[in-house]
Amino acid sequence: MLESILMEAGSSSLNLTMKGMLICMACSLILGLIISCAYMICSEKYTKNFAITIVILPILVQAVIAMVNGNLGIGVAIVGAFSLVRFRSIPGTSKDIATIFFTMAVGIATGMGFVGFAALFTVIVVAVFIVLSKTGFGEIKSLEKHLKVVIPENLNYKGLFDDIFEKYADEVKLDRVKTTNLGSLFEVNYLIKLKDDADEKSMIDEIRTRNGNLTVACGSVSNSAEEL
What we know:
By secondary structure, the chain is α+β, with helices and mostly antiparallel strands. It is built from 7 helices and 4 strands; from the N terminus they run αααααβαββαβ.
């Protein structure tokens, strides 16, 4: 089951036949479709182009591996294929990068004729992928949020909102400060952990009355470690 359908016994080179290649191509497309469906199930946001790319990537890698097998260029071909990850037009998350490597690994396996191994490998990884995504594995359990407040340059941001934070938050940390609008405004960013019974809207309203009704934004902390 886990043996290559393209290699003859005692041989290290591929025996490319029409039947064998069609089986490998069909397997690549089916497994690519399974991976793409799993990715869409486990992702809140995705694009149609990326979903289609995941489907066709295994068969593309399979074709490259099948054509260069037994040639010195196979090493360069594999490295070159994997380096394509660097040239994606839109920066991706670690999940996107892992999915691309996953589909390439499947393409390499089917390109060498190990369709049984590729199918087993796909089923196991997809199952683990879905379980970990749906069980909330690794999610931040705290109520930490990112708060951005814009204030005029004539206000001193240090201690400006301490009484408000004491009322609505358990923990507050000044994350960064930067100037905007040619230095006439300050953008002050905080990391805050709201109290369990805190009214987020009331907190924002009180901040607005103090910063001159300039921009106040409060949202979930982006997981910067997810970006590669």
